[in-house]
Amino acid sequence: MAREERIAFLKKIEEKRGSRVLAYISGDRRNLETKIASDIFPMVHRHLIQIGRQKKIDLFLYSTGGITIAGYALVNLIREFCDEFNVIIPFKALSCATLISVGANEIIMTPMAQLSPIDPSIEHPLGPSVQIPGQPAGRIAPLNVEDVSAFVDLAKTEFGLKTEESLQKVFELLCSKVNPVALGAVRRVTEQIGFLASNLMKYHCNNKELIKKVTGTLIRERFSHDYIINRKEARETLGLNITDPDEKLTDFIIGLFDAYSSIIQLDVPYTPEIVLRNADSGIFTFNRGMIESSALTHVFRTIREVRRVQITQQNIPIPVMGYQERVLDERWVEDNQM
Question: Are 66 and 95 in contact (CB under 8 A)?
Fold first, then answer.
């Protein structure tokens, strides 16, 4: 969909909502995922300068998460330019995107919109490494806060380990698998997220008990980082200020989301074999995120060289087919022609 058509949808949403809309899409195309991060701030600031001071700004948000402090700062930045800040969720607003949402005065959720727990996962330099098949080097696996806590709880509740000596052995086993410095970082991040969520919730309501309930639920009480919170649970169980858009507004929101989904190819998993087809190498361009308002369009764009290679693995006499990928360029660019 051309920019003119996307902006037409965006302006229809603005007209229905009586607001100005800023769209932020952090793509989760499989193997080309992007995260909410602080590199968006210069672009977001440019959009806000163009939009100007407004009574109401709506953030059209799609993301599966990212750096929590960046989400916290994004809410505060947008609030510098408006009296009322709201979030429109067409589909996924998970983890850090949920953190952003609870900092809104109002959360507008379509029938398929999703929130999630905001228990963090971190990728620490000293975290555990996993080997990727067909890749010469491994990658650092993310550490999920609740997984670390659940390991200790498992030892206590399921295996009945309660003595100081037995729990010390459990901790020593954990430290043998995960660097203690990385474990300390997990604990620090947990406390930080509780602080950030509580502060942002003060924009959403002034009920201290509700703030405590919501932050506790989102950080500790939903067991899995993958748990999905629909708008009914968000409204009735959590007590968040959720608005159901009417049929016409829903059509505009989903129409705009479908346009972004097509550009970023959210439903097309990335594999080197598919992009190479019959070639042994090639240079490819991937649009992985967008920030858009009626005045400007910014795209997070990666240009990547991909090659087929023969990889020799330890204890395997026959080389296996693999892929070598090299990033030639990766950055946010202004592109008002796409």
Answer: yes
Q: What is the pLDDT of residue 9?
A: 98
Q: What is the sign, positive or negative, of the torsion defined by CA atoms of 273, 275, 278, 282?
A: negative
Task: With a cut of 90, say whether residue 63 has pLDDT above it.
Answer: yes
Give the CATH class of 3-116+228-268: alpha beta
Domain residue ranges in the chain: 3-116+228-268, 122-186
* Cα separations in angstroms, 150 against 48, 223, 289: 42, 9, 34
* Token reading at 222: 């939903």
pTM for this one? 0.84
Instruction: Please state, in angstroms and as integers, the Cα–Cα distance from residue 190 to each residue in 43, 75, 121, 146, 199, following that order.
Output: 29, 20, 9, 9, 15
